[in-house]
Design a protein that fits this description.
Layout lengths: L13 H8 L3 H9 L6 H12 L3 H18 L1
Helix pairs in contact: 2-4, 3-4
Length: 73
């Protein structure tokens, strides 16, 4: 029997983000994708001020999605 390794890094916050804010992670990731012209901390600030996310949760979402997008390039 193979045990699934625990999720590490920013994605480890995703279950608590979904539970706390009532939206699927794809909702938040789409906001990041729609604002890639902004810098990392500007997107974090947008998620905090416009959508009410806490700093740590917003930072985890932005870090995860920007790293994923950069890896695709």
């Amino acid at each position: 029997m193979t045990k699934t390794p625990p999720v590490k890094g920013p994605a480890s916050y995703f279950p608590s983000i979904e539970a706390k804010y009532g939206q699927p992670i794809d909702h938040w990731l789409s906001i990041v994708r729609a604002n890639t012209a902004l810098k990392h901390m500007q997107i974090v600030s947008l998620l905090k001020t416009d959508h009410g996310l806490g700093h740590g949760h917003a930072n985890a979402i932005v870090a995860h999605e920007l790293a994923r997008l950069k890896a695709k390039d």
